[in-house]
User: What shape does this take?
Amino acid sequence: MSDQRIRFYQTGTFTVGNRLLDPSDRAVQASTARANALTSGHRACQGCGEALGARYVLDAAMRATGNQLIAVNATGCLEVFTTPSPETAWQLPWLHSLFGNAAAVATGVAAAMRVKGKPVRVIAQGGDGGTTDIGFGCLSGMFERNDDVLYVCYDNEGYMNTGVQRSSATPPTARTATTPAMGPERGNVFGTGKSLPLLAMAHNLPYVATATVADLHDLEAKVTCAMGIHGARYLHVLVPCPLGWGHPTDETIRMARLAAECGLFPVFEAVDGEVVSSTPIRRRVPVEAYLRGQKRFAHLFDGPTPDPRIARLQALADQNIRRFRLQPEVTP
Amino acid sequence: MKLPFAITLDPGSSRHNHTGAWRTQRPVYVDRLPPCNATCPAGENIQHWLFLAESGDYRAAWEAILADNPLPAVMGRACYHTCETACNRAKVDEAVGIHAIERFLGDLAIEHKWPAPPCAPATGKKVLVIGAGPSGLAAAYHLARLGHAVTIRDAMPRAGGMMRYGIPRYRLPREIVDAEIQRIVDLGVTLELGVRVDDLPGAIAAGGFDACFAAVGAHLAKRIDLPAPDATRILDAIGLLREIEQGGVAPLLGRRVVVYGGGNTALDVARTARRMGAADAVIVYRRTQAEMPAHEDELREALEEGVQVRWLSTVASLGDGDITIEKMRMTLAGPVPTGEFETIAGDTLVLALGQAVDLAPLRAVPGVAFTRDGSVEVDGALMTGHPGLFCGGDMVPAERTITVAVGHGKKAARHIDAYLRGTTYAPAPKHAPATLERLNPWYYSDAERTVQPQLEMARRQGTFEEVHGGLDTSTALFEARRCLSCGNCFECDNCFGVCPDNAVIKLGPGLGFRIDLDFCKGCGLCAKECPCGAIDMIAEQT
Ligand SMILES: Cc1ncc(C[n+]2csc(CCOP(=O)(O)OP(=O)(O)O)c2C)c(N)n1
Ligand code: SF4
Ligand SMILES: [Mg+2]
Assistant: This one.
């Protein structure tokens, strides 16, 4: 199900393209014919992971559907920075209604296309707040009815558009505007939050996958796979946010890579409620390597001794590695 | 119908909004100097010819080598490849097998009889080259390509210098040397063999030459006096190798050969002795392995072939069928004698203590000066104090390897060319180094180095067949593609892919990329995710 890795080119496996590879083996993003579904001039911050992730996903979906695609967007950065009316950065039919109803609107669009007999496919997309919190009721309904929509969540682990508030996707210990680095337990607390991919699996969806902006080939393969399936599908993409996470603008991809390589963000695919494959960690790093680069975790490192909660985060990462078999060579 | 104002407007494109105005720094595509190129004594543009080889364009790759070095098949075998020691990939997994690919390209050219690229129109200038070794041949090649008429004179009956009379055949087969020399001769170079030039100014004047490049090498063996009942049992290494090559009477080596010295020549003699039937070949070296000047691969191969080494030892005297050595002790000031002696079996002693330059033909040339250690003094252009007389290779102060010699040949040719045209030659300024820190090694797949096949041991001890085999088309391609392309764009499309603002414009194969400054916000992702470090971020002027 995952993409076939091309071996033994100097970089053919991991780079966007490579002059030595057959064009069909290069990423969609390597092609000058890519749709650029999200074009220049948008107002996202420098180094925005969400802008990158959305273009990656939609360009791959455009190719997979022969450009027969409509996108429905929840409120959030992705909507605000692309479409300050009357200007838009979208180069595909695109619809925005409310913060919490993107899944329901997408269901309606898919129904309309079916009624009109048009072979047009539908993607609904939103941030983690719009997906895991306010939009979850509509989304669960869309899942449960198995409506023919691919829902994509761009997870930047907080309500970034309104000034970095905590969402149910914010990791423990992270500092946000609503979980300040103050008091007895600084930052977000342990024991809260939820995993939307696992919840999606609990709906027995035909396809659930996670991905990051650091592994383009993997991401594009998952979008292509999802667009080859009908029914409700869910894709959860980790998109670092330089502003909200407090890392340099050129480290967006590196942060996504470290999140996956330390095990805190497991990259996997599930079919009919069961995990069928996971992207193995290539060069495992301790969670500290990931946390240290971000100001939202700075309070873990400001004391004379390491904060014991780093070890708890490491335990979460280790659990993911066991649970999703992220290191096949290491027997759990 | 009265519509709300907002929906009366046509949707406009965000591309009206030039977000490039937010930028405080901008990406700039750069070329950096890869460590392989930086260390190559012949000045080869290794990363560039590997780039050509990676796409299977072997002919273009070979011609790119030729631009700096006319002897790729020789160099791919006999060079000690400092490039591989410096290779950035050595710190990622293992160095790129540059020498093996160079050899593959050189052999392919010989197999297909590819000629050198054509020469420039004749300039009417004549240059005399003295010495048909690697330096002289390289100079002749480059001078001929530049349109000058070149005559090479050499005292030996055949051309090649140390490539023929110094490096044993099992390292460098003679048909390879012959083929690469022939390609140079085919450019119209005149080769006069068996001619020793003693009166240099006379030879220049008599031949009507406009300039001269002398590279006669260093082949006077350094000797020491040792008490010995029979002086004929002491041979010198370079003379011995020369004699074997000339195939006259096989020198009487005996069954037990002791070689004194720690350089590559000592190993060459010991390995040769094994091939000529010596039961024992023992190297006596006064320091430890760490100080040994010989190349470590050569030592390993010699040991594999049964050569023994007595570290921290000097030869004290020769007896009748035995040799007495004295143990040394290492101190900060170097090895010192211990007074402890040992007698080992030995029929012959071969001295491999280094070579000196035969300065006789140059002594009387006006203006030529010499260094205290017996080399010829040259300026930055390799010219001696005698206008129009240039020197290179082992004759001038430098490391004595054939790669350095080939590099001197090229350098001298460029300066001689400028001298003949009445100008000066200034090499292009070097790019800043492409250090490993600038690379993003994440993007390179794991790929182990390709191992060259080796001759089976029995034939390495009894014959002069070549020890190392070559790569084939597929292994050479694989190995070339292990190159990281340090500091030079290889069109992986990463910058084009990772820009969140679509501000990288892809110009097409071979043309690279351009930044669309209307939209580049200066986030730096392209530079950070460039695998080979070919993008710099520079501050905008405010
Ligand atoms: C019903 C409603 N409540 C609150 C808001 C204000 N609001 C707009 S965007 C946003 C945060 C969006 O967060 P998320 O969905 O994670 O997307 P991000 O901006 O992080 O990409 C909020 C709270 C709103 N537009 N509608
Ligand atoms: S990886 Fe290639 S360019 Fe870099 S040092 Fe090695 S051979 Fe040279
Ligand atoms: Mg968010």
